[in-house]
Amino acid sequence: MDYQPLVELVGVSRRYSLGEVEVEALKPVDLKIYRGELLAILGPSGSGKSTLLNLIGGMDVPTGGKVLFDGQDITEFDEKRLTLFRRHQVGFVFQFFNLIPNLTARENVELAAEIKGEKVDGLALLEKVGLRDRADHFPSQLSGGEQQRVAIARALAKDPEILLCDEPTGALDYQTGIQVLSLLQDINREMGKTVVIVTHNVVIGNMAHRILRMRDGKIDSIAVNEHPVEACRLRW
Ligand code: ADP
Ligand code: MG
């Protein structure tokens, strides 16, 4: 199929040296992530999920191979360019929300765009995640699920090309986790945003276009629910 992916990993690997010991966190992997797709990453603890996600988003630099983002090899970027790339093109959502405690929900969201030199309507973004009425609350006044919604609104504030979510439901109960995953699915379907989610919540199997399983630092399998290119072509 002649279709340029948003991200392409070519023989990407990541090794850590711990004194005498070498840890191969990620063995050489090839992977294409398509524009508009919802990709789930599953796998046991220590299998390389976070390593893979961080390499996709330029949070980490591979020890082998290259990462093409929109056709550009980000592994060739210097530190400054890589920082700009992350700031402008990548939205991250973490397990523990990482909101700034002394800023309100709205301020947390608006600050993310300011870092990029833009202004956004924090209220409109909070409305998207169903939290308009919590705009003036501080993180400590919000439930875990609400904090994660604010974190998702914050990630969207910079209008990134891709949303990378590392165990976004890891600190939430099962039902709240499902609500957060549904929100991410809506963002994928309604906004056409490319979304990658690392999760242990099995409901993702019914939501994602593709389900990638990691094992021992390798891609064990990729199951296809709906071919992302075809799915996205039909949608817009
Ligand atoms: P997962 O997210 O699937 O739990 P990780 O990608 O965090 O797995 O880790 C994969 C492997 O790489 C693990 O064995 C882990 O201990 C190792 N690893 C990850 N980060 C580092 C690091 N900064 N230094 C050394 N080893 C690391
Ligand atoms: Mg991890």
Automatic annotation (TrEMBL):
> Out of the domains of life, which is the source?
Bacteria
Q: Where is the ABC transporter domain?
A: 7-234
Q: Which GO terms describe its molecular function?
A: ATP binding; ATP hydrolysis activity; transmembrane transporter activity
Keywords of this entry = ATP-binding, Nucleotide-binding, Transport
* SUPFAM superfamilies associated with the record: P-loop containing nucleoside triphosphate hydrolases (SSF52540)
Q: Please give the SMART domains that the UniProt record associates with this protein.
A: AAA (SM00382)
GO terms for cellular component: membrane protein complex; plasma membrane
One Pfam family of this chain: ABC_tran
Which InterPro entries does the record cross-reference, listed alphabetically? AAA+_ATPase, ABC_transporter-like_ATP-bd, ABC_transporter-like_CS, ABC_transpr_LolD-like, MacB-like_ATP-bd, P-loop_NTPase
The name of this protein is: ABC transporter-like protein
From which organism does this entry originate?
Answer: Calderihabitans maritimus
